[in-house]
Amino acid sequence: LNQKVRIRGRSSILNSQRQKVKTETHMKKIMIIEDNKDLQQIYKHSFEKYGYEVILEGNGLEGITSVVDHMPDVILLDLMMPGMDGFGFLQKIKDTGGLSIPVIVCSNVSDVETISRATRSGATAVLLKVDYSGKQLVDKVTYLLNEFHKKSPKN
Hints:
five-stranded parallel beta sheet
């Protein structure tokens, strides 16, 4: 029975495996580190709608403990969170030798010193939450991710 199924359905099995691999290689993975559960769900819905796999974490410490396990393509990071804030997350990444993952800060804090501190700490870019929502945020993150990879040396 197994032989018949295998022979008869072989091309459809191979095609479905090819499609699965094709889909997996094009799906980008984003880790969203944000303590506001409502914003987490809004961001999650937006990124999933446009083909991203989404990992949600509630603060910097949770992000640190899972970033190596998940190895996202990009991290969207809030700055002001309980426990370990965004600056603590950036510092911890920097202290451990850094990762080749772009970290995009998305915060309500917009003063020059905070933005400067975030970029000095390793943030690829700093976005204001009020300036982006839904598809606009996805488009900006996708653009920044593509720019990051253009600038990164090829392995």
